[in-house]
Amino acid sequence: MSGHIKGEILAVYRDLSAEERARVDAHTAHCPVCAGRLARLQGVDAQLQPLAEMPVPPGLLRPLPVVMQRHAERERPRNLQAILPRVFGPAAVALLVIVGLWLALSSGDGTHSAATATPTYTLTPTATIVTQTALAPERTGATVQTVPVAFEPVPEPLPSPARKTGGASSPALLFFVPLEPRATIVR
Amino acid sequence: MSGEERPVDEQLARRVAELFEQHRSAVFAYLARLTASAEMAEELTQETFLKVFAARDRLSEVANERAWIFRVATNACFSALRRRRRFAWLPFEMAAQSARTESVAEQVIRRNAVEAALARVPTKYRTPLLLFGYYGFSVAETAAILGISEGAVRTRVYRAKELFQRAFEQDREK
């Protein structure tokens, strides 16, 4: 026999036929690799033999008819426990999904379109910039300057659940959003 | 049931009761090592012998009663493990599992080095290892119990022994 013996053969050595076992023995007699593997695999069987005695629970120490009787008595209400997760588990998940969808759809305004979600730009013809120095022009000689200022784009405010009125926010509301002026000019 | 059938049925019932007395410890220990749960193993042992009782008419056709009982036990165990995996995510299932206290059998598994190493071998390989290596079934009997080919049994037993040795040596090094 050339090469080594397959592990699957060595692992079930005790169950080999007489012919198979003779072939293995002839090979392992002059192949220390296979001999070592065989010893190691047989060693597992030996290790398993003194597995600790497993104490049998009292419920199983009764005669079989008593065990069967008690099992039948327990199974009746327990069947409901077994059924509940199978029926109500998936049903509960489905219910949660439905409620979640309903809340998502009913919150805010259903008429909001993608267009209103984008920031809107407004321009005012003039704005008044008051700087600190301008507050005391008699001291610094600065004057109050009125310059055109472009407002920053104002993102559409998030819809709140309390809103019942439809339509996008009134453009007038945008003017009342406090903004930082982008530039101050002092002369 | 006719008058003639009743004694036969009583004989069969008595035979099942005898089989229960003879094999309940081995079946319970086997199921405990597969499920790592004494509570589940006890239920499955009862279920096993209930099924054996229900199928007692077939006893006369069974060549190897012990292997047949282990087959019934194995099938019951795998069904239960599949159910447990399917519903393990449910909150009341998780709460029930965490509320259980460790039984004596489970303590044995945890403390004994060989048991602990065995518990680390995946169920797919642990089952044929126990049947072949510990309970002494042949390859053919193990294949019949598990419903797989003899070649598959040889492969899984080999793999199981390798995994067991590795786990045992790793635990010893700790």
Describe this structure as you would to a colleague.
The complex is a heterodimer of chains A (187) and B (174). With 187 residues, chain A is mainly α. In chain A, 50% of the residues lie in helices and 2% in strands. Chain B is an all-alpha fold and 174 residues long. Chain B has helices at 5-35, 38-54, 65-87, 91-99, 104-111, 113-119, 123-134, 139-146, 150-173. Chain B is globular. Chain B starts with a helix and ends with a helix. The relative contact order of chain B is 0.10. Chains A and B meet through helix 1, helix 3 and helix 4 of A and helix 1, helix 2, helix 5, helix 6 and helix 7 of B.
Oligomeric organization of the protein chains: heterodimer
Q: Supply Rg of chain A.
A: 43 Å
Low-confidence stretches of chain B: none
Find the structural class of chain A using helix and strand composition.
Answer: mainly alpha
Distance between the first and last residues' Cα of chain B: 63 Å
Largest sheet of chain B: none
Distance between the termini of chain A: 105 Å
**What is the mean predicted local confidence, pLDDT of chain A?**
68
Shape of chain A: elongated
Number of strands of chain B: 0
Order of H and E elements of chain A: HHHHHEHHEH
**Structure classification of chain B:** mainly alpha
Mean pLDDT over all positions of chain B: 86
Biggest interface and residues each: A-B, 34 and 48 residues
Biggest sheet descriptor of chain A: 2 strands, antiparallel
What fraction, in percent, of the residue positions of chain A are helical? 40-55%
